[in-house]
Structure formats: C-alpha cells, structure tokens
Amino acid sequence: MGISVTILGSNSALPTSERNPTAQVLNASGRFFLIDCGEGTQMQLRRNRVHFGKIDHVFISHLHGDHVFGLPGLISSFGLLGRTNDLHIHGVADLEMVLRPVIDYFSRELPFKVVFHHINPLEKELIYEDAALEVATFPVEHRIPTVGFLFREKPKERKINKQMCDFYEVPLRVLPKLKKGEDFIPDSGGHVPNTKLTLPAPPSVSYAFCTDTRPLPSVVEVVKGVDMLYHEATFMSDQEGLAYKTFHSTARQAAKVALQAGVKKLLIGHFSSRYKDLSPLLSEAREVFPDTEIATEGVTFEI
Amino acid sequence: MGISVTILGSNSALPTSERNPTAQVLNASGRFFLIDCGEGTQMQLRRNRVHFGKIDHVFISHLHGDHVFGLPGLISSFGLLGRTNDLHIHGVADLEMVLRPVIDYFSRELPFKVVFHHINPLEKELIYEDAALEVATFPVEHRIPTVGFLFREKPKERKINKQMCDFYEVPLRVLPKLKKGEDFIPDSGGHVPNTKLTLPAPPSVSYAFCTDTRPLPSVVEVVKGVDMLYHEATFMSDQEGLAYKTFHSTARQAAKVALQAGVKKLLIGHFSSRYKDLSPLLSEAREVFPDTEIATEGVTFEI
C-alpha cells in the first residue's frame, strides 16, 4: 500500500530516441492517476505493465503538445479495450475545446464517457477528493497557463493493537471509535486511554508535480514539507538566461526550491534534448539538495 | 541510390509494448517520403536515424487514429527544429478539417507551411510527381474511405559507356542524347548505334503500400508486377470471418494477392495485437507466396 510514482517520460518538448515526453502515473493503493500524457504514453504504460483500466483520472498541467499529444491514442485504445467506466480529464477549459472534436472524429461510439473537468489555472483549487486522497492544483509561471499538482493522502486511522484489545475485552463495535482516537470506557466502568489500545496511524504521504515553470517562491510555500517533489530542470545553470526566457528552471533552481521547501526527496525531469548524459544535471542539483534523483523512465519511486 | 523502405511501425490499432502503430519511411535516392504516421512516429524516426528535415511529403492512407495520431507531434517537432521548407500532407479532405485546428492551437507561429493535398479516395489518382518518381493512389475497401499508394520510379536514362565513347570520339554535347537512346552520327559521317555507346538503364523499381483493406481483385490489377508489395495481414486464416467483418485481410489472403499480382516480394504487417509471436503469420503467407517477409520495425528493405 502507500503511494508510488512511475516515470513514463521525462524529456522536454523534443523527444529523443531514449526519452519520451512528459507522463507519469501515480499508484495510490491500486488506484492509478495519470499526470500529463505526452505522445507515446499508451506504449509506455504497456512497457511498464500498468493496468490501463485502472486509470480513471488524468491530470494535464498545461496545453503544450508534449504534455497532451498522447491523449487521443490513449482514449482510442481505451475504447478498443472495451472500457466502460467514465474517464475524467482535468485540464484548462481549452483542452476540452481542442480535444473533443478529435475524440468525436476518431473515436465515435466510445463505450465510455470522457468527462472534462475545467481547471482554473490562476488559483489554488481542490480538484479531486476521495476517501483517502486529495489532489489540488497550484499556479506556476510558464509561457501559457500552467498548474502544478499536489497529491496528499488524507490522515489515516490509528491501527488496532489486537493483543491489548483482547486483554481489555474491547467489543468489536468499539473498534471504529478507537481507530479515530477515542478512549475506551468499558460498560463495567473504568477508562482505558486510546494509546494503550492502538498504534499510531501510518504517515500520510504527499507528492507534488511541478513542470514547465520558472522557480517560484509561491511554489516553495505550496510544496512545503512534501515527501517527494518532482520539479522540472530543463537546463543546467550555464543556461539560466535561456531558462528564464523560456519560462523554465535549471537543475540548481529546482534543488533550491526543494531545499527552501524542506521536501524529503526531489526528482528532476523535463530535460532539454540537448543533454544526452543527465549526470551533470544530477550533480548540479545534488550540490544544493543531496537527496535528488533523476526521473528516469521506467523507474518507480516509492513515496 | 535506389529505393528502400524502413518500417517504423507495423501493428494494428492497439499498439503493444513491442510494436508501434503504422508508419513507414521510403527513401528514394535521399528524398524521404513518410507513409502513415501513427503515434510515436517521431520517436521511431529518431531511433532509426532518419533525417527529419528530409521529409517533405507525408501520405496518409485513411483517418483511423493508429495511422495519424503521430502527426501533431511530428509537426510540432519540425517547428522546434526550425524547419522552413513546406510540409506537404496528402490525405482525404477530412484530415485537414480535423488536424488544422490542432496545429493552429498547439503550433502557432510555425516557421514553415503545412500544405494539405486532398485525396479523392474513390478513384486512382496521380498525387505526386518529380523528375524521378511518381506516387499514385488506388482505392481499397475498409470501414472508412481508404487508399493504397503506388510508388514508381520513372524510366531511367541509359548509362554512358565511357570507354566506347572515347574510342568513337563522341563530343560531350551528344551525351544527353545518347542517354535517351539516340544513335550517334559523327560530323565526319557514319553511324554508331546507341547500344555500342551505352549500357542499359538501371531498372525502375516500384513499391505498393496497401493497408486496412479486404483482399481485392482491383488491388491485384494495380500492383501487378511491383518489386515490393506491403499488404496488411491483420489476422491468421482461422479468423477469416473476423477479418471480413472488420474489413481486414489474413496472412494467406495477402499472400494470394501477391501471388496473383506476380509481385517480386511481399511484406506483411498491421498485425493484430493478439499475436505476440508473428512467425505463424509468416508461415501461413509463405505457404502461398514464399518470398514473404514480416515488416519488422527498424528493418530497412531494399526494393
């Protein structure tokens, strides 16, 4: 159980023969959430043996082609595979405007519904919530409206200490209350504090996805203390001017955001295709924030 | 020199982790022609080290997603690479209708023009011609309007036999006439027959591409005697009913077309993703037409 993220693509706009455009899949206790969907995502999902049918939600950071061109093929394949459950796509309103005619033309008679949810890219928003997980957006600064995503597990229940509950003869009906932290008051009188009967709840983890942006103080605030931060690092520091001009970040800048936000771990990605060897970007980031990893395609990171 | 075809993808609609959707690139003496453009084509072009900038013409057989979803990404990458020469896309009229808005949205300010040429899918048509090559369409029978493509080198000039021309003191200005087959009449009188001064022209080769169709007598006529025929073979014979119903062909039917048309070599492709091992399809086709090969991705076939 817990959350992991599998990198499907981590290159910037021009794919290379080795690296695909952006896509990641988050596995939250068996529920799969797709983040961005560059060209070739469906092939990458297959290569990484992700169960297609378990993806019900797709989150699109912004409308540059390298983050969305995999959607028509993915939707088409869902149709061919006989999917019936709704597919929810979260993105700015233009995504529906530009994608709907393509779906309608190429995937007539889909056996499932494609439901678009419009993101307001100017504000922080809670865009998804279930019993265990919340997904919120936050604005970043790119050439076009772009958002980051913050995935946060909800607080979990305390674990029952079975041995101690047996000893105190706790009735079954009381267990849900114990999990919520209440003490036990036996019918025969007395008082057993919750901490005697339960173990602490497992930690609730968080993951922030932040691509195609200049480094931002506002992002530092939003991602404060997350367990894992994916931050774009399109260039190295010697191209800081180009990074600024194109609304991107350098590896060092990504690391500074991670440091200032006090995150536990940093993944860097969205590399310019000029870099064949990525180790210099990793070194640059690690000088500032040692617990950095390359978002290598095909690798699953436990959060 | 000569013509070769490199297979970029040869799977049917559902890509597998091993096989990409349809795309091929024809190399005619250094000019590249792209045939169909399934998702991932730009990555496959890179993996096969095809010089992007040399593709000026793209031919699209029909508007099913697995034959076109690679176009937006390819066009976008052409733009990022600073392409300036026009890109010509040949397809049915709907292709422009559905693709133009996507290009306009995602690739504003392209440094080159995308020129659409509308194919009439109901008739044979000469759709491209240069000094050395002709490309014609022919109708096939699928669920939606679909065409095949016939690439044919024009007749070539005879080769100069330098030694003999020296011996007969042929002036330089006469050589172009000799190449066209004329005899040599020296100013001093006399007559030297062309065959004494030249060698036969190299053969002009032909390639037919024929996907997403039932097997057709009309195709047999069109592809008669071509040097290489690519014919779809989505299924094996035990699925002949399904092939008919979905407007596809079996490996045996593809081989029969090749046999009846007297082609030199057959490539089969567009395989259903149900087939992990393709050798049974090859065996089935070879029983009817021995000179058959699998259109394996990454393989270049000299025509």
UniProtKB/TrEMBL annotation, chains A, B:
Superkingdom to which the source organism belongs: Bacteria
Keyword tRNA processing belongs to the record: yes
Gene3D superfamilies reported for this sequence: Ribonuclease Z/Hydroxyacylglutathione hydrolase-like
Keywords: Endonuclease, Hydrolase, Metal-binding, Nuclease, tRNA processing, Zinc
Residues forming the catalytic site: D66
Leading EC class: hydrolase
Pfam family, one: Anti-Pycsar_Apyc1
Xref: HAMAP family: RNase_Z_BN
Subunit structure: Homodimer.
Protein name, per record: Ribonuclease Z
Species the sequence originates in: Marinilabilia salmonicolor
Source organism phylogeny: Bacteria, Pseudomonadati, Bacteroidota, Bacteroidia, Marinilabiliales
